[in-house]
Amino acid sequence: MLSFRYRKISNFIMTLLIILGLVFAGVALMVFFGERYGKPMDVEQQAKYSKWIRILVFALIFAALLKMMF
């Protein structure tokens, strides 16, 4: 008979593997549909998104630092 601790660890590992499998399947679907139906971006649109992403990443890093400090 398996001990309670072993069953608990085994259950945790199975849950982790299921979550990892679902994440992998989701990423695979995004790559598949992105390559199949995605359109290339214009240079102007790419520059606009790049500017916004830089600002958002800076804001998120700053917010994370504030959260850690307080």
From TrEMBL:
UniProt keyword annotations, A-Z: Membrane, Transmembrane, Transmembrane helix
UniProt key word Transmembrane helix: yes
Membrane-traversing stretches: 12-32, 52-69
Protein name: Uncharacterized protein
Organism: Thalassotalea marina
